[in-house]
């Protein structure tokens, strides 16, 4: 039996087909630029690769194309080979705190969460509806980015605004990247040979989107993203933490509309806003002492250091700090900059190990480091497959 995992971003769709038995990958692919004049489609299956440029209107159409192609290419012969489809769903609001089988009421709940994740939840819903149109009987499971963080205590989740806004309007910190933080935590415990219920880590997911999570005895107790993914670290195009008064200033004094401010903070800020480039590889290449690229790196790294200090304080004992995501896994330079000067906190990076570029999960710290430094390759799709399998096994 097989599990198909679908990860719909705002304009992309990643898919992976897993063998259910051992979660090995049978086939994977990606559609980018959904909604643009030309979408890029790629699929790899064993030695076979397909790359196409076609116009794909929305996630519904993208899903239908993926489904049809899996059959045309002979990756699937009969729909009965599929045990289930696992969907990444960005926002589960305060209703969903674990992976859940999709039914009509779940879809309605997801629709009610659209205002909380306007860029992502609509494409997640379209993905679910497209699968239902192709194979009505197929079991679908929603795996939420927010679910891992439902263990955050109120003092971490609640904003210091009127309490009724929390109680009645559910304005609170939900956190995201939950599948990644959860996967990375379990892999870290394997690498450290430690028990999940007695391990404390700080997980740094540093990609185009970036977040940090404090995990105590296997449970998320705080994370940097908030009600939406805008809060927290400096990201590719998102500002992360800012003084909320900047929004009033931009509106009242500079005449920005709310839509313009939304666009500014989500799409035109972060690394892009600071130096005109959101790709960390390019920024590192262009950085020189005193230029805007170097300053963007400095601000990015500084914010991460502040969160490390804060999360070490709330964890009381930190066993490891984990680097993951495109930047965390691939940039030895950013890892070194983050660790620089943190020896006082018990972090000692082994600079030779840090240069290692193998695809393996590794311990990067010196043997005497009080806090271990780990490099873990995240795999959100695999975690979605695992959670899909687990939730269905529980129902059997
Ligand atoms: P997303 O949030 O879109 O999933 P990724 O986790 O794929 O993002 O991370 C993308 C980021 O990783 C980009 O900023 C990219 O430049 C960066 N990145 C990838 N490889 C490297 C590398 N070798 N050095 C520095 N940054 C890298």
Please explain how this structure is put together.
With 396 residues, the protein is of the alpha/beta class. The protein folds into 2 domains: 2-144, 2-Layer Sandwich (Nucleotidyltransferase, domain 5); 194-380, ATPase, nucleotide binding domain (Nucleotidyltransferase, domain 5), CATH 3.30.420.40. It is 38% helix and 20% strand. The chain contains 15 helices and 14 strands. It has helices at 59-72, 104-112, 121-134, 154-157, 163-167, 178-192, 245-252, 258-267, 270-275, 280-286, 292-315, 325-330, 332-339, 351-354, 380-395; strands at residues 2-8, 13-19, 25-32, 39-45, 48-54, 82-89, 100-101, 140-144, 200-206, 210-216, 219-223, 320-324, 362-363, 372-375. The strands form 2 sheets. Strands 5-4-3-2-1-6-8-7 form an 8-stranded mixed β-sheet, sandwiched between helices. Helix 10 (280-286) packs across helix 11 (292-315). The mean pLDDT is 94. Bound molecules: adenosine-5'-diphosphate. Residues 207-209, 236, 279-281, 284, 325-327, 330-331 line the site of adenosine-5'-diphosphate.
């Amino acid at each position: 039996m097989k599990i198909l995992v679908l990860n719909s971003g705002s304009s992309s769709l990643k898919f992976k087909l897993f063998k259910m038995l051992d979660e090995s990958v049978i086939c994977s692919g990606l559609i980018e630029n959904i909604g643009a004049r030309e979408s890029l489609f790629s699929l790899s299956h064993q030695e076979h690769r397909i790359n196409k440029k076609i116009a794909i209107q929305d996630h519904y159409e993208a899903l239908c194309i993926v489904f049809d192609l899996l059959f045309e290419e002979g990756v699937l012969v009969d729909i009965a080979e599929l045990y289930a489809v696992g969907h990444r769903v960005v926002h589960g609001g305060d209703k969903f705190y674990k992976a859940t089988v999709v039914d009509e009421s779940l879809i309605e709940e997801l629709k009610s969460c659209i205002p909380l994740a306007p860029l992502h939840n609509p494409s997640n819903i379209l993905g679910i509806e497209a699968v239902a149109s192709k194979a009505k009987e197929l079991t679908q499971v929603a795996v939420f980015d927010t679910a891992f963080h439902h263990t955050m205590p109120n003092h971490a989740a609640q904003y210091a605004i009127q309490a009724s806004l929390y109680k009645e309007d559910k304005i609170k910190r939900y956190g995201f990247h939950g599948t990644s933080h959860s996967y990375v935590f379990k892999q870290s415990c394997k690498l450290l040979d430690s028990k999940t219920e007695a391990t404390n880590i700080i997980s740094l997911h540093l990609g185009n989107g970036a977040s940090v999570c404090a995990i105590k005895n296997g449970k998320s107790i705080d994370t940097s993203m908030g009600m939406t993914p805008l809060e927290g670290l400096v990201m590719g195009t998102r500002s992360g933490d800012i003084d909320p008064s900047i929004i009033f200033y931009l509106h009242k004094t500079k005449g920005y509309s709310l839509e313009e401010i939304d666009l500014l903070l989500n799409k035109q800020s972060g690394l892009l806003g600071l130096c005109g480039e959101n790709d960390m590889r390019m920024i590192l290449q262009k950085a020189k002492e005193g230029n805007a690229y170097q300053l963007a790196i400095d601000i990015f790294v500084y914010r991460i250091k502040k969160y490390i200090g804060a999360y070490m304080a709330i964890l009381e004992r930190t066993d490891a700090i984990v680097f993951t995501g495109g930047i965390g896994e691939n940039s030895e330079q950013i890892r070194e900059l983050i660790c620089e000067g943190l020896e006082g906190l018990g972090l000692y990076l082994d600079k030779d190990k840090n240069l290692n570029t193998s695809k393996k999960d590794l311990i990067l710290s010196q043997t005497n480091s009080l806090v271990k430094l780990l490099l873990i390759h995240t795999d959100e799709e695999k975690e979605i497959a695992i959670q899909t399998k687990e939730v269905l096994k529980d129902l059997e």
